[in-house]
Amino acid sequence: MCICQTQWLPDDVLAQETLPEWGIYVYMCGSDLESENGAATVDLSEMMEPDLPEDVTVVVETGGASEWQNEVVDPSYIERYLIDGDDSACVDQQPLANMGESGTFADFLTFCTQQYPAQKQAVILWDHGGGSIEGAAFDELFDYDTLTLAEMQEAFAQVFGEDSQNTPLEMVGFDACLMATLETANMLQGYAGYLVASEETEPGCGWNYEAFLGGLGNEPSMSGDQLGELICDSFLEGCMEYGDYLDCTLSVVDIEASKSLVEAQDNT
Questions:
Q1: DSSP 11-51
Q2: How many Å apart are CA 61 and CA 64, to the nearest integer?
Q3: Residue range 121-168, pLDDT digits in tens
Q4: What is the pTM of this model?
Q5: Which domain does 255 fall in, by range?
Q6: For residues 204-228, b (16+ Cβ closer than 10 Å) or e, as one string?
Q7: CB 138 within 8 Å of CB 144
Q8: Between the N and C ends of the chain, which has fewer C-beta atoms within 10 Å?
């Protein structure tokens, strides 16, 4: 990674350029997973391994940890990195903010979709997960405050509109425990085509970023469900490599198809 250099793209430049096929936006709340174990640093290193084409843009926001186990990320700021192999760089630095608040999440979504838009967009939330009640993104610097499902929905509505009809996100994924719930899928109605998450606790190795980003780079024309399948398959392969595969779960949920299940539950 390189030293942080703010890199805003003017609106006229965005209008002239052909949008890349995919934008992958990772909301990385490091928490004690990073400060104690360096887990976020490991995944950042994995993200930098594939040689990504211009058709795939990866943006990562870092925060929420008292210490980062690398010499680049500054824990006293919210930082945004454009991941591009050896040329990865910090492209924006903001004052420290609570990653467990909807406003911080909404700011990240706005930054990504305005400065690095793509034809197909996916959001990944990285950290601890606490299921339907606690949500995800346990910010170590703000008394482990979490981003609840209601706060996530508030952020999506702020950025994409409360009555979004065009499903602005191909996929929302949680590299976090316990987030594959009906409530999570229902929260994403109108905002995402697919949910990728685990119904159980995730093994420490987490998602296999090198494998699925490399696969996406080789075939950027893939759809949201195909990307989700690739994430799941590479996750299992990674868990088997680390010997943690017996208890690992990860699924791809069609958000639209889950609507009838929500309706059935409401009618019981």
A1: HHHHHHSPPPSEEEEEEEE-HHHHHTT-HHHHHHHHHTSS-
A2: 10
A3: 999 999 999 999 999 999 999 999 999 999 999 999 999 997 656 899
A4: 0.93
A5: 21-266
A6: ebbbbbbbbbbbbbeebebebbbbb
A7: yes
A8: C
Average pLDDT on 200-209 reads: 93
Closest CA to 85 of 112, 53, 111: 53
Angstrom distance (rounded) from CA 212 to CA 231? 6
Contact 191, 164 (CB under 8 A): yes
Pick the closest to residue 89 from 105, 108, 73 (CA basis): 73
Residue 178 maps to a domain: yes
> Does 9 fall in a domain?
no
Per the CB < 8 A criterion, the answer to whether 154 and 204 are in contact is: no
**Unique residue bearing structure tokens 């990944």:** 124
In a domain, 6, yes or no: no
Cα–Cα distance, 70 to 41 (Å, whole number): 7
| CATH code: domain of residue 35 | 3.40.50.11970
> Among all chains, which residue has been given the structure tokens 């995800």?
136
The two structure tokens encoding residue 213: 């980003």
Q: Is residue 14 part of a domain?
A: no
Number of domains the chain contains: 1
Percent of the chain with pLDDT over 90: 81
Strand partners, 192: 169
CB 94 within 8 A of CB 107: yes
